[in-house]
């Protein structure tokens, strides 16, 4: 997994140009800067999904640039530099870098490092915003940490949404799980069951309940939902 946008800051213009070309060939929208001041003077310097920085830069030094970026964004930051020494590694990690590579390094190694850091960041972000279903305890935990005690019917529905992995669950499938007939009056029972689940969640957390109706099709849980 690669980020959509990336800022590359390195005063080695030839290296910067060819690394940018390599990353662009992988589908990344790369903006290259040969001076840290050029990045900071950009109209939106903190818009990028990822940053690859050298340490020995004209303008603001690489470590200080890293600190500035970290005050504004939690985007991935990879340091690629010729500076050596354990104290350099500790300095940049303490300043907020996610990974440090020492030059000389191949473009493929830089790409792999960017992939690894971005994948970890995206996985962490998904987990932090996910709803968690504990089937054994019949508990749904919202992203804000609030817990919802589920009835047997609620749990059946939530397990259905968990298995759907974000896809829409048809009304017929839910009716079958609930033991409802296909008669018109079963729609009222179906709506009432969904409504009770929604209200149970709303009473516990101020977060918007991501349970949405797809007209004439079924229902969808439109948020990351994982098993606890």
Please describe the topology of this protein.
Elements: E1 5-9, H1 13-25, E2 29-33, H2 36-41, E3 50-53, H3 62-72, E4 76-81, H4 86-95, E5 99-102, H5 107-128, E6 131-134, E7 139-141, E8 147-149, H6 152-164, E9 169-170, H7 171-178, H8 185-202, E10 211-214, E11 218-221, E12 225-227
Parallel strand pairs: 1-2, 1-3, 3-4, 4-5, 6-12
Antiparallel strand pairs: 6-7, 7-8, 9-11, 10-11
Superfamily (CATH H level) name of the largest domain:
Response regulator
Largest sheet: 5 strands, parallel
Strand content: 15-25%
Which shape, going by the Cα principal axes?
Answer: elongated
Count the domains.
2
Number of helices: 8
The chain-level structural class is alpha/beta
CATH class call of the largest domain: Alpha Beta
CATH 2nd-level architecture of the largest domain: 3-Layer(aba) Sandwich
The percent range for helix content is: 40-55%
């Amino acid at each position: 997994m690669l980020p959509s946008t990336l800022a590359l800051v390195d005063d080695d213009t030839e290296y910067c140009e060819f690394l940018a070309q390599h990353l662009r060939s992988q589908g990344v929208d790369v903006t290259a800067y040969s001076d840290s001041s050029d990045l900071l003077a950009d109209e939106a310097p903190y818009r990028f999904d990822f940053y690859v920085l050298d340490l020995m830069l004209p303008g603001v030094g690489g470590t200080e640039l890293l600190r500035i970026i970290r005050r504004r964004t939690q985007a991935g930051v990879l340091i690629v530099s010729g500076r050596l020494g354990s104290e350099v590694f500790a300095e940049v990690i303490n300043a907020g870098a996610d990974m440090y590579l020492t030059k000389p390094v191949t473009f493929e190694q830089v790409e792999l490092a960017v992939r690894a850091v971005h994948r970890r960041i995206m996985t962490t972000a998904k987990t932090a915003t996910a709803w968690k279903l504990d089937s054994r305890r019949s508990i749904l935990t919202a992203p804000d940490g609030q817990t919802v005690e589920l009835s047997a019917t609620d749990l059946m529905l939530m397990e259905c949404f968990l298995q759907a992995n974000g896809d829409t669950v048809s009304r017929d499938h839910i009716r079958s799980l609930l033991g409802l007939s296909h008669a018109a009056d079963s729609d009222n029972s179906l709506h009432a069951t969904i409504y009770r689940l929604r209200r149970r969640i709303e009473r516990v957390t101020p977060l918007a309940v991501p349970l949405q109706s797809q007209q004439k099709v079924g229902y969808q849980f439109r948020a990351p939902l994982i098993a606890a």
